[in-house]
């Protein structure tokens, strides 16, 4: 299978010169002179046309080789994407990385650090991005602490949506919220 080193650059085509006025039966006086010139031009164009055909063939080979490199690379990329998606879905849907809470909580804004209780024995780790949600009311943030034996948890809210106080929540792993500044993407609990 060809690699990147096998790729060849396409060649720009050379423009073919235009023919002079062709002979015409309506102009018999110049017919022989124009016919001779036209035949000479056609003969001269044969190597030029052959060179143009060679350019087209060369460019087709370049495109074919590029496709031979691109298709396997795309297949590898798609396979890696599918594998990453499968791992992400496994992690998100794993019983150890989702939990419920009946702690009475109010939707809080950025910088708040609400504490709550979830089921014991879950696989949450401090420093992970999490979403705490009640229907469309959501707090995104970083898990500051989780005590596996007691279920006690605390998060730093980075963004929130909605309002109200609820006692039925779902906690799940997530990515950083869309509005998280880049400097916060690598937050570590206690740092």
Describe the protein's architecture and organization.
The two termini are 49 Å apart. Mean pLDDT is 85; it is low at 182-191. The protein has one helix at residues 28-93, and strands at residues 98-101, 105-106, 115-117, 129-134, 137-146, 152-161, 165-166, 169-173. With 191 residues, it is α+β, with helices and mostly antiparallel strands. The chain contains 1 helix and 8 strands. The strands form 2 sheets. The chain has a 6-stranded antiparallel sheet.
The main sheet orders its strands as 1-8-4-5-6-3
What is the overall shape? rod-shaped
What is the residue-averaged pLDDT? 85
Approximately how much beta-strand content do the residues carry?
15-25%
User: How many helix segments?
Assistant: 1
Using DSSP, what is the number of strands?
8
Radius of gyration: 35 Å
Low-confidence blocks of residues: 182-191
In short:
With 191 residues, the protein is of the alpha+beta class. The protein has one helix and eight strands, in the order αββββββββ. The chain has one helix at 28-93, and strands spanning 98-101, 105-106, 115-117, 129-134, 137-146, 152-161, 165-166, 169-173.
């Amino acid at each position: 299978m060809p690699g990147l080193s096998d790729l060849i650059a396409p060649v720009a085509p050379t423009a073919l010169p235009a023919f002079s006025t062709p002979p015409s039966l309506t102009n018999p006086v110049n017919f022989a002179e124009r016919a001779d010139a036209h035949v000479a031009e056609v003969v001269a164009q044969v190597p030029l046309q052959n060179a143009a055909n060679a350019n087209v063939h060369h460019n087709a080979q370049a495109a074919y080789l590029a496709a031979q490199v691109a298709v396997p690379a795309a297949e590898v990329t798609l396979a890696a994407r599918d594998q990453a998606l499968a791992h992400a879905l496994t992690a998100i849907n794993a019983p150890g990385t989702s939990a419920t809470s009946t702690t009475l909580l109010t939707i809080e804004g950025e910088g708040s650090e609400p504490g709550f209780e979830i089921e014991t024995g879950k696989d949450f780790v401090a420093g992970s991005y999490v979403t705490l949600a009640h229907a469309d009311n959501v707090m995104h943030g970083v898990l500051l602490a989780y005590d596996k034996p007691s279920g006690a948890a605390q998060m730093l809210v980075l963004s929130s949506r909605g309002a109200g106080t609820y006692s039925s929540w779902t906690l799940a792993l997530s990515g950083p919220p869309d509005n998280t500044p880049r400097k916060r993407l690598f937050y570590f609990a206690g740092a």
